[in-house]
Design goal:
It contains 6 helices and no strands. It is mainly α. It has one domain. Helix 2 packs across helix 3. The longest helix is centred in the C-terminal third of the chain and has 28 residues.
Length: 117
């Protein structure tokens, strides 16, 4: 689990640093560029659409893990909008709470407890 946490930290730091440079050089105009690339029907747009599918799955998993509670839905929306930085931070802290138990990390404490019975 420590290798996984190291990977999560590495991804978070890389994306945060890269994002800081991009914002400093180009500003915050992400949405226009993101959806503009999709509208152009090129490879950049294909990548963005593929990535948006992964963001949707990430957000859905976060909400599901929290039983679609209001907080879970909010977390899912945050994961969809926040991308890898949100998901890596969430997984890092959830892995600590799960004490390295992969079933609890993936399913959440309640579902993992039912599975263990």
């Amino acid at each position: 689990m420590s290798a996984f946490r190291t990977l999560l930290a590495f991804i978070f730091i890389c994306i945060a640093g890269y994002t800081a440079v991009v914002v400093a050089n180009h500003g915050i105009g992400l949405l226009a560029v993101f959806f503009g690339d999709i509208a152009q029907m090129g490879w950049a747009g294909q990548f963005n659409l593929d990535f948006m599918g992964l963001l949707a799955l990430s957000g859905l998993w976060l909400a599901w893990r929290h039983h679609f509670s209001p907080g879970g839905i909010a977390l899912g929306v945050l994961g969809f909008v926040g991308g890898a930085p949100v998901l890596t931070a969430y997984l890092f802290f959830a892995s600590l709470q799960a004490k390295g138990d992969p079933a609890e990390l993936l399913l959440g404490p309640a579902r993992a407890a039912r599975l263990a019975r």
